Amino acid sequence: MVIQAGTARKVMDVEPEQSKQALLAIESGGRAAMAELRHVMGLLAGPGGERLDGSSDGLEPQPGLDQLDALVERVRAVGVLVSVAVSAPGPLPPGADLAAYRVVQEALTNTIKHAPGAAASVTIGHDGDWLEIEVTDTGGGRSGGPRTGDGRGLIGLRERLAVYGGTLDAGRTAGGGFRITARVPWRRT
Hints:
Elements: H1 2-11, H2 16-45, H3 68-77, E1 81-86, H4 94-114, E2 119-127, E3 130-137, H5 152-163, E4 167-172, E5 178-185
Parallel strand pairs: 1-2
Antiparallel strand pairs: 2-3, 3-5, 4-5
């Protein structure tokens, strides 16, 4: 959201429509983050120990791959070219669905933040019981230079995927871009 706010500030006078789109993306991302936080806090601290994830508690459903198109459109609205190929195996368990969405969200956020001018590619498929996710970027304006940041986003993704028995790998591509690959079991056992 900070990156999108900075983009909006920079183009506010020159490209007001692009600034408006960035602000809408910030609003949407903030609402989604607050909904997830309310959900997690409700699960941890419901009165009497019961789960607060029913329809009467006002919480919106967690995002999943069904909301991938909206995520991609928000990223495109801030100027990133994104191609998407999805061949998901069908309905996913909620945890795997949310984890897959978060992998793509974090990877595209990193592209915006660390590779201005880069194009990105999202591929989601499956191999047997495994959902496979790959997000790459072309490296943009800082191609070849170090990506700055504390890496907490990728650490959080690894931890999220590990809960479901999944894995995450991330690193530079030979062409100077960046690739994130994730695998998560999608069948309920």
